[in-house]
Amino acid sequence: MTTPRTHSAEARPTVAVLGTGIMGAGMARSLLRAGLPVRAWNRTGAKAEALVADGAYCADSPADAVTGADVVVTVLNDGPRVLGAMREAAAGLAPGTVWAQTATVGETATAELAAFAREHALTFVDSPVLGSRQPAESGELLVLAAGPPKARAVLAPVFDAIGRRTTWVGEDAGTAAASRLKLVLNNWVTALTHATAETLALARGLGVDPQAFLDSVSGGALDNGYLRAKAAVILSGDYTPSFTVTNALKDTRLITEAAERSGVRMDVARAGLARFERAERTGHGDDDMAATYLASFDGPDA
Q1: Residue pLDDT, tens place only, 153-180
Q2: Rounded to an integer, what distance in angstroms lies between the CA atom of residue 242 and that of residue 289?
Q3: What CATH number does residue 288 fall under?
């Protein structure tokens, strides 16, 4: 029988990280740098094994990963994958364990995950993170969190390790307040990405030096760091992913579905959805989301 967890190790909690892809691996390394014990699991075992050199324990199953953990952090692609992993972990979960769900899964899935947490007496915190590969690796993510006050002290060293700031937006994780805010932020991120991609594509089509555009907005109200980052990816032609087209497509679907349920018309988001779909269809699903630029041309390598 699994005994309830009392969180006596709040200052240095043992953290199970389920999902060690681009984001999860970076977050796990940030936790390890902060001196927190990490038990890592990934469906593709080699991705979790890569963290052993950094000091992580590589678990052979979700149940193995969560056994003895004070905090469970899920960093999987979508709601069904998160729920599937947690069901596999059930045998190792102790009542009272704090579960920080950091993936972008949307409102409906968050409600389903909160229900699972209630069934297993877990302390559930809806805590999606904003950022990509580099912020995950450097511990500079923005953590958006909703959950009971009793979880905050337990999660403080975890969120401090992975993020530059934590914004608490509510005490009831089941309302998906943090996940709803994440969708709003992601809509802004994808809009900026598409705008950068289309502007540089237009420059190319009109024979305008893209650097002339960047120089023209430099230092003014139209300039921003995200424009610079995605422009650099596009102009270099190096689409090594910080956040993939496929993940951006998944998030945009969540955005448009949530907007439809709320009676909000999202013309730009739907157009962006079509661009991501076209980029994925032409073989760029695993490339950085800036590959929406390539959707402006006839061929995948144009």
Answers
A1: 999 999 999 999 999 999 999 999 999 9
A2: 8
A3: 1.10.1040.10
